[in-house]
Design brief:
This protein is of the alpha/beta class. The chain has 13 helices and 6 strands. It folds into 3 domains: 2-89 and 238-267, Beta Polymerase, domain 2; 93-236, 3-Layer(aba) Sandwich (Rossmann fold), CATH 3.40.50; 270-355, no CATH class.
């Protein structure tokens, strides 16, 4: 990484960390599920992970192992989203304003917004409303130049400040961020606007300190006024709920990590399973050729041929234990034979010899017939 950036490796000290094995798997799952984010449950994180994955894949920098890992991470993230409420409550002021507006008006695409511009916080909240589908937004300011700049930043329309009383009734959502220490909107203006709206409610967000909207507006039934303290309180409640949901989400992640690790371990047996199947198929082909259409003979030959090799190995192990106490490789003992017998019983579901099954084909200790 240092070579690629043409910097000294020392400059990266303390900026990177390395995780391996299960720790690495868990970290990827946690990031994809937005459990490792500054704001837990932030939905944009999964999109960023997928974008990075696409870039790596397009650059030819992924393989089957990484692809399997990423797909498993997406599955884990989907489970977290569907089985917990980790992304359902707002955790920022802008998100809180959008949620409250939707609670009042429903679909924001049918709503009209008015930003009485002046501060960055007002633009931040306006941007959040637009990203949540606000249908139309206009910006106004006593200075035409300031209004034009804000409208350009938000890609929306400009309204003349001189017509504020006339355009106010058209606004379902009003944002203020002037901070002029004078009330931009008062109770009389809101009452007149609501009368023209036939008492359809107006959602108001005052982000200025001190406020732009007269506190008496709170006494008007159809005017729903929130200031920064109100929005921060809603956001804090959302963060607390998400923290509680994160406990259940981490349990899901732990289960998904365990499933992925188990599946990955099981896949290491695939080559042996393939070789075993090929061996059985070869034996079957040979038996069919030798049996000449005799089904009984074919099945007897097949059993004998498949059991011949394993039977010889187990008998040799038993003889080595009885005669020498060691195997032919010099380091075996009775545990070797017991381990093989246990593996055979487990592979073929034979049960335990103590249950009355001595492992022989006919109860006489002869595991195979001579051909």
């Amino acid at each position: 990484m240092a070579d690629h950036a043409q910097i000294s490796a020392d400059e990266l000290d303390g900026q990177l960390y390395v995780l391996r094995g299960e720790d690495a798997v868990r970290q990827i799952f946690m990031v994809a599920a937005s459990l490792d984010s500054l704001m837990i449950g932030e939905p944009q994180v999964l999109g960023q992970v997928k974008a990075g994955h696409r870039m790596a894949r397009d650059a030819g920098m992924t393989g089957s192992e990484l692809e399997a890992l990423m797909q498993a991470a997406y599955t884990a993230a989907k489970r977290v989203r569907s089985e917990t409420a980790i992304d359902e409550r707002p955790v920022s002021i802008a998100a809180a304003a959008s949620q409250l507006a939707q609670d009042l008006h429903g679909d924001l695409s049918r709503c009209t917004g008015l930003l009485i511009a002046g501060g960055d916080m007002g633009e931040l909240v306006a941007r959040g409303l637009l990203s949540n589908g606000l249908g139309h937004l206009s910006v106004t300011h006593p200075s035409d130049a300031r209004a034009e700049t804000a409208a350009r930043n938000l890609d929306c329309h400009v309204a003349s400040f001189d017509t504020l009383a006339e355009i106010l009734p058209d606004a379902d959502i009003v944002l203020t961020s002037m901070g002029t220490r004078r009330y931009v909107l008062n109770a009389d203006m809101l009452s007149a606007a609501l009368k023209k709206r036939r008492h359809r409610p107006i959602f108001l967000v005052d982000t200025a300190v001190p406020g732009d909207i007269e506190p008496a507006v709170n006494r008007i039934d159809e005017a729903f006024l929130y200031d920064l303290n109100d929005l921060e309180r809603v956001a804090m409640e959302g963060r607390a709920i998400r923290e509680n949901e994160a406990v259940a989400a981490r349990s899901i992640i732990n289960a998904e990590v365990a499933d992925f690790q188990r599946g990955r371990a099981e896949r290491t047996a695939d080559p042996a399973v393939v070789r075993l199947r090929q061996h059985f198929e070869a034996a079957r082909d040979g038996v069919l050729a030798d049996a000449g259409g005799d089904a009984e003979k074919a099945t007897r030959l097949l059993i004998n041929r498949l059991l011949h090799g394993p039977s010889e190995v187990m008998r040799q192990l038993a003889a080595d234990v009885a005669l020498n106490g060691v195997g032919d490789n010099g380091n075996g003992n009775e545990q070797d034979l017991q381990a093989v017998e246990k593996a055979v019983n487990r592979l073929f579901g034979l049960g335990d010899a103590a249950d009355g099954d001595d492992g022989s084909a006919d109860g006489t200790g002869q595991m195979e017939e001579k051909e």
